[in-house]
Amino acid sequence: MERNKLIILIAGSVILVILLFLLIVLERAENTENSGPSTSGDNTGTELESSDTDSNTGTSNNISESAIDDSVLIESDEELRQYAQEAISNTSFNKQAEELTQETLYDHALLYQRYTFLFEDQAAEEGSAEDDARWMSLEIKAWYDLAQEKYGFSYEPEDLAAFVENDSDTEEETSTRLLLEELASINDNLYYRQLEFHYLRPYIWATIKDDVAKENGEDPDDDLTYLYYDIDQQVMEKLMESHPELIDTN
Question: According to the UniProt entry, which residue ranges have a biased composition of type Polar residues (predicted)?
Fold first, then answer.
């Protein structure tokens, strides 16, 4: 029995020594690794260089794309100007007309229709541009007549131009702006007549809406959209009475 205990103690001691030896070896190995040169800085530098390269590449691509976009926009503007010039040369109108009339509205509605067909690359059906221009010009003139008769509306072309410039709701599309610029380069009369075709109706509403609101017991600062459509309905009714041929009987 005593001999067995001794053997167990010796074996335990040997195992303990082996474990201590292994622990010392592992600890030294760990210290050696910690005291060695660090490569993390080099890796970081490599990562930064890679990041810089990617960033520079991205910036270069953005610059190239921006240059392409600008080139496309410039080319588009030039094309629109050519279309505007072509439409102007193919449309007959009184270049000296100083006041709004049914005829000036029709001429400028027709001009815009032809211009639109050009830059939208559409083939107009025979008579469609003229029919559309006639309808649009009659509608605008009916708005003008109603506002003049019921609310004493009057205006100067310069006031309309100021309204368009200052009102955010009438921001000009590029195509419209370029056509207006081409007309202005010929004379102010053509510029103002085209301006009337595009913006006279919203200008009329902005001018008379307070009177319309009071007439209907509404606060002018409230949403008056329904009153706008009420005026528009009155305009349509008058238009149909005076031009029954416009009603589609098909």
Answer: 32-48
